[in-house]
Amino acid sequence: xxxxxxxxxxxxxxxxxxxxxxxxxxxxxxxxxxxxxxxxxxxxxxxxxxxxxxxxxxxxxxxxxxxxxxxxxxxxxxxxxxxxxxxxxxxxxxxxxxxxxxxxxxxxxxxxxxxxxxxxxxxxxxxxxxxxxxxxxxxxxxxx
Length: 144
Hints:
Layout: H1 26-30, H2 33-41, H3 47-63, H4 67-91, H5 102-118, H6 123-142
């Protein structure tokens, strides 16, 4: 460690001026963090996500008939359904403070669930139909 009256070692980085902030912590630079920080700042081309999706599509097309892949995808579907259900349960308390009132909000939520889960009405149709009705009712209540 150097003090104000002792010079820095030739390989030591000079401390930043008071008005400038270091771009990367010194210990991160020593461990290769500088390259990671520069890579994170580098602009990405719009084709990169498309390339990832295309590679995954080709891999799926090649291995779709494999029983392990089918089982993994079934498991991911169950996980996704569980996450959606858990999000819905977390949002239930917010229905008490809904503009339409708790009774109407719970009724619309139950109707939406029943139509989608039990009657198998497609989600886009329900969002366009019942979602538009709920939106219009809430908008009329909030309109000055």
